[in-house]
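> call design_seq(struct)
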């Protein structure tokens, strides 16, 4: 007996130690986990960074950096590869994260803005993967053949995987995703909890002549890159991460480049039609002036000063947009429409649904939660409660036509206003009493219809079943001071009084 007790005590002690270790490990892990906001940058040369850092200096210790610039298809000739050992992420943003040690890209201006938002105890990171002269189209330009292109994943042929040894198709796209996966994994391994704040995209100079084709591709690219990022992070909110497009400078390649206006109009359309997609202007950032002078010593790149400005605009837009409440409202089919309004404080979303005649809202899902039973009429009120992303999907179904009959008593007539009454409709009945009669009651399925004082019609909201409208009349009273008989009696009395006066 004593032996069993000793064994039981030992087992309990072991269990206690194991549990304590487990809880202690979890606590230690939780304590070691540090949130870090991550900002993404992609595109061609003005993203990679070809701007000379003339008059630009400084380092931003609160903003870390990782990424690669201009990795060739064969892996040789890499000008910069900034993915370190991730142990402490000591790499602060400074000059030199462009294509050469004296060049900058948008990361510098972004860091300049972000550095004042974050602190040494709450750092952020900029991740960049870019290459000069690369296309979004599946092009075969010289630089596409050097670095690969950004052709989006959903456009790849079934079963296709980019292979740098065979073709440039989608290589830059795949490099971006692969590099991000590496950076994200290393951050997690070193106790960070990355939060994606959005992506800055500076690309299109190589595709200026094909705005229509580009529009299709950039929409696919945004959806694809969001989906791939969300798959890596496991966070569905990244499916609508802010995506900021840098407009193409009107003076790229030449002063007042004639191809740019139509392209920039397309970029703005993409932002207007997309969810959490924005643009930042660049028309005031002059690359080639009217006198033939170049800002950076070449025809295609911003000056160092203007590149800083571009980065500042990217960061400003990403900071503001990441705090917005984003609503993606979709209607399935063509049997109705829906609109929404967000309250000024962002604490309430009001969805108004307008089904076509003969149709109803059969499903209203808010972030995959069915909410059709919460409709009041055709209006849904949603409390945001601090949540920033809402996907609302409305479906419609044909209403059932109801069979509504009338049963009218003696003393008048009645008719249903609508030729067909559908489930959920308002039942409207016109009732006309005959002379000497008045309406006693109008009822449907045991429910009294209310008289509308303005129309003098009888109404009942939200009829859902077939049935019969029963109308009853009653004769008008002949007593008291009311009715035609009372008026006749008064008339006779007055006549008699007049006759008596005459005789007198």
């Amino acid at each position: 007996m004593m032996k069993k007790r000793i064994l039981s005590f030992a087992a309990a002690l072991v269990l206690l130690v194991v549990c304590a270790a487990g809880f202690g490990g979890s606590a230690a892990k939780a304590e070691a986990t540090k949130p870090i906001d991550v900002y993404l940058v992609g595109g061609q040369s003005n993203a990679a960074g070809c701007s000379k850092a003339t008059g630009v200096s400084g380092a931003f210790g609160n903003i870390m950096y990782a990424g690669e610039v201009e990795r060739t298809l064969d892996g040789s000739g890499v000008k910069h590869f900034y993915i370190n050992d991730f142990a402490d992420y000591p790499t602060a943003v400074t000059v030199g994260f462009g294509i050469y040690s004296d060049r900058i890209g948008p990361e510098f201006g972004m860091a300049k803005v972000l550095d004042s938002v974050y602190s040494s105890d709450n750092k952020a990171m900029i991740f960049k993967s870019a290459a000069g002269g690369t296309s979004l189209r599946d092009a075969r330009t010289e630089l596409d053949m050097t670095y690969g292109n950004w052709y989006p994943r959903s456009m790849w042929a079934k079963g296709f995987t980019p292979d740098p040894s065979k073709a440039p198709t989608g290589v830059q796209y795949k490099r971006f995703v692969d590099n991000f996966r590496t950076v994200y994994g290393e951050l997690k391994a070193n106790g960070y909890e990355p939060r994606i704040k959005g992506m800055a995209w500076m690309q299109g100079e190589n595709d200026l002549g094909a705005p229509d084709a580009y529009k299709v591709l950039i929409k696919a690219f945004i959806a694809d890159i969001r989906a791939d990022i969300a798959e890596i992070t496991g966070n569905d909110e990244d499916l609508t991460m802010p995506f900021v497009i840098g407009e193409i400078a009107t003076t790229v390649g030449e002063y007042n480049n004639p191809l740019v206006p139509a392209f920039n109009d397309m970029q703005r359309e993409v932002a207007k039609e997309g969810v959490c997609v924005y643009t930042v202007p660049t028309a005031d950032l002059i690359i080639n002036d009217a006198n033939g002078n170049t800002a950076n010593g070449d025809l295609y790149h911003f000056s160092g000063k203007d590149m800083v400005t571009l980065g500042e605009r990217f960061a400003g837009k990403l900071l503001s947009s990441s705090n917005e409440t984003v609503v993606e409202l979709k209607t399935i089919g063509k049997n109705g429409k829906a609109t929404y309004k967000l309250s000024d404080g962002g604490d309430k979303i009001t969805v108004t649904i307008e089904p076509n005649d003969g149709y109803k809202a059969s499903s209203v899902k808010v972030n995959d939660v069915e909410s059709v039973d919460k409709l009041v009429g055709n209006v849904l009120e949603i409390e945001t409660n601090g949540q920033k992303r809402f996907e609302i999907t409305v479906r419609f179904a044909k209403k059932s036509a109801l069979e509504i009959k009338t049963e009218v008593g003696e003393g008048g007539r009645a008719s249903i206003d609508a030729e067909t009454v559908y489930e959920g409709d308002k039942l409207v009945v016109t009732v006309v009493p005959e002379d000497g009669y008045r309406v006693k009651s109008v009822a449907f399925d045991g429910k009294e219809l209310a008289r509308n004082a303005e129309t003098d019609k009888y109404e009942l909201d939200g009829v859902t079943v077939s049935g019969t409208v029963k109308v009853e009349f009653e004769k008008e009273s002949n007593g008291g001071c009311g009715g035609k008989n009372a008026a006749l009696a008064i008339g006779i009395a007055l006549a008699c009084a007049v006759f008596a006066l005459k005789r007198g």
